[in-house]
Amino acid sequence: MSAGVSVEEAARNNAEWCDSFYRTRGINGRFDSDAWTSATRTPPLYPDAVTLVAGASVEAVLLRVDTSVGCSIKDSFADLDLAPLGFDRLFAAEWLCQEPLSSEAAPHNWSMITRQDELERWESASGISTGPRPFFRRELLADQHVAVLARYEGNAVVSGATANRSRTVIGLGNVFDLRRDLESTWRDAAIAARALWGAMPAVSYDSGESLAAAQRAGFAPSGCLVVWVKRE
Fold first, then answer.
1. Among the listed residues 11, 29, 33, the one whose alpha carbon sits nearest the alpha carbon of residue 20
2. Which domains are delineated in the chain?
3. CA distances, 56 to each of 34, 37, 80, 82, 139 (Å)
4. How does pLDDT run across 197-219, given as a tens digit for each residue?
């Protein structure tokens, strides 16, 4: 990643986001030195385990999760081979990091969501969840390490992201933009999060068009991750 941010820090931040998200659904994961894991099956789009170090033992990680069909493992260092154990690669992505600029002006029309009705409008605009709603629960709004960020045009949510603060970095996720300007959304979401928590590096991961937009916004990719899913 950047000279001062390691993939381990980004992976830990992402695991902390997953842990916060799951706790709103009554799922309690565990942090060990090698991975974050959940013995309870996690919601769609979210992993049952996130590796925290390179070279984690596949066998040790799988012992701590439900390995039935649909189990998903976020291989943060793209160094595991789960194919012989019945897993397929769901997707690969790049870790991203953006260092804070020396001078950052507060982004226009961005704010942190604080109410349930605002969160519902944000979720509807995001298009992220396709199943039963709410996918993002109101308990997230009470977590001091989490922020749901939105850009408004009038009363309409047009862009957004989730953010979570770790000890050394801020994580961004669920980045969306209805105006087809993901570059400014990546840039402004990072600045809006730093306005809340201070001048910390912003980390994330992505692929495809959103990855390219993040790079244009000053995020540097370094290192690959892979998400595996248990096939039938």
1. 29
2. 7-94+225-230 (no CATH), 98-222 (3.40.630.30)
3. 6, 12, 8, 12, 32
4. 999 999 999 999 999 999 999 99
Determine phi and psi for 6, rounding to 5 degrees: -100, 160
Overall average pLDDT of the 106-127 stretch: 94
Residue 170 · residue 200 · CB < 8 Å: yes
3-state secondary structure the chain: CCCCCCHHHHHHHHHHHHHHHHHCCCCCCEECCCEEECCCCCCCCCCCEEECCCCCCHHHHHCCCCCCCCCEEEECCCCCCCHHHCEEEEEEEEEEEECCCCCCCCCCCEEECCCHHHHHHHHHHHCCCCCCCCCCCHHHHHCCCEEEEEEEECCEEEEEEEEEECCCCEEEEEEEECCCCHHHHHHHHHHHHHHHHCCCCEEEEECHHHHHHHHHCCCEEEEEEEEEEECC
pLDDT value for 1: 59
Band (108; pLDDT cuts 50, 70, 90): confident
Whether 73 contacts 80, CB under 8 Å: yes
Residue 85 clears pLDDT 80, i.e. is over it = yes
Which of the residue ranges 8-12, 128-132, 200-204, 223-227 would you say has the lowest mean pLDDT?
Answer: 128-132
**Spatial contact of 90 and 82, defined as CB atoms under 8 Å apart:** no
